[in-house]
Amino acid sequence: MLCFTVSATVFAQSDKLKAKATEKVEQLNTEIVEGDKTQALSEEQKAQIFQVHVERIKALRKAGAEKEELKEINKKYYQKIFKEILTKEQIKARKAGKEKTKK
Predict the structure, then answer these.
(1) Which of 34, 62, 86, 99 sits CB 3.0–4.6 Å from 90 for a disulfide?
(2) Which of 24, 27, 45, 40 is nearest to 93 (CA)?
């Protein structure tokens, strides 16, 4: 019984983590598409970014509550997305898309 409860809790946390990571991927894709529909994320990019967000969320959960530490973790993982996964054109499209939604 205890084993079932523990595993159910782990799966529930895992589902929440995956849902949050998926939400972040879709949010980024939406921002890019708002700027330029032709620059939408590929399925491969979505999978890579999803994995980065899963790792980021896990790292944030393990970290303490110190603001500076959390900032550094976020910076590390977002740099990975913007420097290693997205193209320059996608970054420009995202910037344009975010500016459109601000107005």
Answers:
(1) 86
(2) 40
